[in-house]
Each structure stands twice: as C-alpha cells, then as structure tokens.
Amino acid sequence: MGSRCLFCFADGFKGQRFKWARANNRSGAVLALEAASLLGDRVTKLYLYEPPFIINDSRKPVPADYVQQLNSLTEAGKRSEAVEYFVSEALGIPDEFIGYMKADPSWNKMKDLSHTLAYDGLIMGTTQSGKPLPTNRWVVNAPTLIMTGENSEPLFHDAAQALVKLLPKAAIHTLGGQDHSAVITAPEVLAKTVVDFEL
Fold first, then answer.
1. What pLDDT digit, counting tens, does each position of 2-11 carry?
2. Are 145 and 49 in contact (CB under 8 A)?
3. Residue 155: which residues within 8 A CB-CB, separation 6 or more?
4. For residues 86 and 93, what is the distance between their CA atoms, to the nearest angstrom?
5. Are 153 and 58 in contact (CB under 8 A)?
C-alpha cells in the first residue's frame, strides 16, 4: 500500500533530478525518506505531510509483534480481523468507531488488501515504537518541508519536531484549520503549499 503514497516530479530530462513528496498517509513518509537517502543529490526537495511516527507517550505505541500478528491473521484467512487489528493498533482508532467503519463499503476493499498491511508495518519499522527516531537511518541533505495540520493530534506535531532535528535542511509548516485528513479533504491546500513554499 505504501508504494501508492509516493510520487515524484522529474526536474530536467530523463528524470535525472527529483522533487519527492509524500502524498498520502502511513508509510509513504518513510518511503520518501528512504528514496531521498538512496538518491542523494538527485533529490532536490522533499515534502512530507504528517509522518505518523510515535516517538513518545503521546499515543500508545504499535506492539512489537505487530507485523507477526498481521501475518498470522491473513494467513488464517481472517482478513477482516487483520484490518481491524491494523486500524486499532496502527491507526489508533477507538473500538467504538470500528463498528461504523465495518459498515462502510470501503471495509471490503480494505479486506481485499489486508495482506499488504504487513508491508506497511515493515516499512515503518521501529518508528512507531514510542522510542526516539533512529539518528542514522536517513541521510537527507535536500531541503525538506514537513507539513502538519493545525488541528491534528499531538503525535503528528511531536513527530515533525523530532524529524526536523534530524534533517539539516528541514522546516515545519503548519496548515491552518487542517488535520490529518487534509490529504483527502483539502488536497488543494497541500498542493498550493508545495508549489508556493520555497526552501
């Protein structure tokens, strides 16, 4: 699922230089950081929206055996249970709301993709463990804009503050009136920020 979260703009012929943007939720931020680390100077700018890192007690961390549990559920054919485990443990959705989610037609689509949820967990690695971010995982020298929504949960603001300390050319920009759903509800706001903001 994470591979859909990443897109690039070619800057020059033959895609020799890139501006990477994390355009969706979950592991897309990590994929963008990994790409920028691997491509080095070929990445000219990096844009991230609310990396969902859990680096303190602002939210319950994802269990250490999270990926193993997801795999066990999907291998047993318990696709709905796997999705429920994902939204509960990884997304932090309270139990009282999960029933409403199951009643939505999108739940069946999530069930069909439930075998990919473990990939997302593998990409996220230890970034949702409640511990500080690894200091040597990403070497990104490109100017980086980390966007957050004004009304988002504290964990997203804490994650942005932690990440900006690790990247030498990073800055945080808060989008007024937005929350974590802005990638769906206000994509034009994010797009304008990416276009207008100079790093």
1. 333 344 443 4
2. no
3. 52, 53, 54, 58, 59
4. 9
5. yes
